[in-house]
Amino acid sequence: MTLFAKIIAGEFPADKVHEDEQCIAIRDINPQAPVHILVIPKKPLVNVASAAAEDEKLLGHLMLTAKALAISEGIAETGYRLVLNVGRHGGQSVDHLHVHLLGGRAMGWPPG
Ligand code: 5GP
Prior knowledge:
By secondary structure, this protein is an alpha+beta fold. It has one domain (3-103): HIT family, subunit A (2-Layer Sandwich), CATH 3.30.428. It has helices spanning 3-8, 56-72, 87-90; strands at residues 16-19, 23-27, 35-41, 80-83, 99-103. It has a 5-stranded antiparallel sheet, covered by helices on one side. The longest helix has 17 residues, at 56-72. Bound molecules: guanosine-5'-monophosphate (5GP).
């Protein structure tokens, strides 16, 4: 069971900012920006590489949830970044799909 599966099951604490039937959103424990939220599907997909056609609506739901949170967090006007790290070179450290919502400061490019 991954850390995020434990958080979804309520077996590990997290600062939850949103929950619905398909996903939760929590504040990252090691924030890289003034707003750093993880949007996590309840379905235990490892990452986008392991998603299938049947997950199309779920993936869209994660994006729209992130968009709604950007509005409620007050960063929609200034802009923000959505990140999905995939696998080793992508920098993924938790093997349960999650969308990073980062904002509240200007982001650099290219990413490290
Ligand atoms: P990844 O590196 O897999 O893209 O992102 C995993 C994220 O999970 C990291 O940003 C990391 O700070 C965050 N994280 C790791 N452990 C915990 C935890 O126990 N609670 C919360 N809220 N976030 C965590």
